[in-house]
Amino acid sequence: MATGESISAAPCVSPFRNLSSAGEEARKQMRSCEGLVDSLLYVIHTCVNTSDYDSKTVENCVCTLRNLSYRLELEVPQARLLGLNELDDLLGKESPSKDSEPSCWGKKKKKKKRTPQEDQWDGVGPIPGLSKSPKGVEMLWHPSVVKPYLTLLAESSNPATLEGSAGSLQNLSAGNWKFAAYIRAAVRKEKGLPILVELLRMDNDRVVSSVATALRNMALDVRNKELIGKYAMRDLVNRLPGGSGPSVLSDETMAAICCALHEVTSKNMENAKALADSGGIEKLVNITKGRGDRQVCCREMRSSLKVVKAAAQVLNTLWQYRDLRSIYKKDGWNQNHFITPVSTLERDRFKSHPSLSTTNQQMSPIIQSVGSTSSSPALLGIRDPRSEYDRSPATYAVLQ
């Protein structure tokens, strides 16, 4: 497909982009449409092969796929049948099994030998349970979809295409089903983490937000978490207020960065130390203390409270590492900097606003009118880890 041809095909793809943002039922109908997913990915592959990274056709295809990748594990029966139970092995959990026998102490599970390939997939070799090439809707979540998204993230200069590609990876890596784990492994295998980290430096709020949340989801993989902590910490910290980033970010994006920092430093003391060494504590404390000391009387301040809460959660996590407290104290920090009491006024205001979740983040489809450059922001919140999914805002425009 030539560049001129791909541009002329843009009006054909645009309706699919808008339809895919019309809600759950629309997404289900489109996923069941024979040949649609295959065709969208074929167009992307063709454009990538011809170095056509910035056309409207590519943008529309990527954004449609991002919408169709939203809440896959909940909305697609095939996805659920592909094995939520198998993820128990990946996460080291035990799940109920029919292979059990009664005993005087209740049911006793029979021991079943499993090969390493059956228990996990680290991005190398054949994928467990898949002996044939994917087709149709299966192509949405198959790890082979990672490579074209990463190519676009590395080569495209179109912010909408970058946001859509990062949003697709964000959606696919969220969730407690095995293919979310496989996607996280595939991104590492394809050396996609450095590509995502580099985009944190971009002067585009929505791209940075999608990338930060994608990195947060990638960090659910232990090996990814180690790599992100080692190579991305300074870039994440630099986008906090007072950093060397190219522009001031929105509250939504600041919250996404704090959520990423929280996941990367959870259950990893080396990453927590890296955050401290990168100057992150001072910036997080400035967010919590600076916001807390100001009068909260205007609408803008209300929205920024979720950033305060997100930053406070990161600080609370850092304080849990007792072995690091001596280092904190040498730098002039004490418990009061890490454990921030919430005033009665703030507590009342938090009750009236959904809080930010650090759980697996997915990007929800939102349609926009012609000429609109931004969508109404959806609240990103902080709830208990592993609670139900939250959505970050997405941009969808009718082709002009």
TrEMBL record:
<feature type="compositionally biased region" description="Polar residues">
    <location>
        <begin position="354"/>
        <end position="377"/>
    </location>
</feature>
<comment type="similarity">
    <text>Belongs to the beta-catenin family.</text>
</comment>
<feature type="region of interest" description="Disordered">
    <location>
        <begin position="351"/>
        <end position="393"/>
    </location>
</feature>
<feature type="repeat" description="ARM">
    <location>
        <begin position="191"/>
        <end position="228"/>
    </location>
</feature>
<dbReference type="InterPro" id="IPR016024">
    <property type="entry name" value="ARM-type_fold"/>
</dbReference>
<dbReference type="InterPro" id="IPR000225">
    <property type="entry name" value="Armadillo"/>
</dbReference>
<dbReference type="Pfam" id="PF00514">
    <property type="entry name" value="Arm"/>
</dbReference>
<keyword id="KW-0677">Repeat</keyword>
<keyword id="KW-0965">Cell junction</keyword>
<dbReference type="InterPro" id="IPR011989">
    <property type="entry name" value="ARM-like"/>
</dbReference>
<dbReference type="GO" id="GO:0005634">
    <property type="term" value="C:nucleus"/>
</dbReference>
<dbReference type="GO" id="GO:0005737">
    <property type="term" value="C:cytoplasm"/>
</dbReference>
<dbReference type="GO" id="GO:0098609">
    <property type="term" value="P:cell-cell adhesion"/>
</dbReference>
<feature type="compositionally biased region" description="Basic and acidic residues">
    <location>
        <begin position="92"/>
        <end position="101"/>
    </location>
</feature>
<dbReference type="GO" id="GO:0005912">
    <property type="term" value="C:adherens junction"/>
</dbReference>
<feature type="region of interest" description="Disordered">
    <location>
        <begin position="92"/>
        <end position="129"/>
    </location>
</feature>
<dbReference type="InterPro" id="IPR028435">
    <property type="entry name" value="Plakophilin/d_Catenin"/>
</dbReference>
<keyword id="KW-0130">Cell adhesion</keyword>
<dbReference type="GO" id="GO:0005886">
    <property type="term" value="C:plasma membrane"/>
</dbReference>
<protein>
    <recommendedName>
        <fullName>Plakophilin 4</fullName>
    </recommendedName>
</protein>
